[in-house]
Amino acid sequence: MSKTAVKTSRNRRQLIDSFDSLKHSFDGSLQHARDVEAAFEAVRRDFITRISRDLHATRKRLPENNPVREEVMAFIDLMERTSVAWDAKVAGREKGIAFRAHFEDSLLVFVNGKVKSGKSSLGNYMAWGDTDPSDEQKDLVADTLKPRFFSHAKSDVAGGDGEKEAELRREFRVGATEATSSIQGFSLPGLTWVDSPGMHSLNIQNEQLARDYVEHADLILYTIKSDSAGRESDLVEIAHLLGKGKRILLLLTGSDDMEEELGDDGESLVQTWVMKDEDRRMRQRTYVRDALEKNYPGQSLEDVGIISFSARYAQLHADDADAYKDSGMGDVCGALSDLCLSEGLRIKHRTPLNNLSNFLQSCSDDLQPYQALIDGFRQPLTDLKAKSSNSLNVCIQQGQSALAVFIDDFFETGARARDDAADMRRQLAAFQAALNVRYQEIAAEQLGRIFSEVLSGFDEAVHATYSNSELVRLHDFELETATEKVAKVRSGTRKRNTLIGTALGGLTGFLLGGPAGAAIGASLAGGVGGAMGDSASTQYDEIVITVGDNWLDIRHKALASANQALQECMRTSAARLWHLMDRDVEQILAGLTGEIATFDKQVQKLLHQTKMN
Question: Which of 204, 266, 569, 585 is the 20 to 30 Å CA partner of 127?
Answer without folding.
Answer: 204
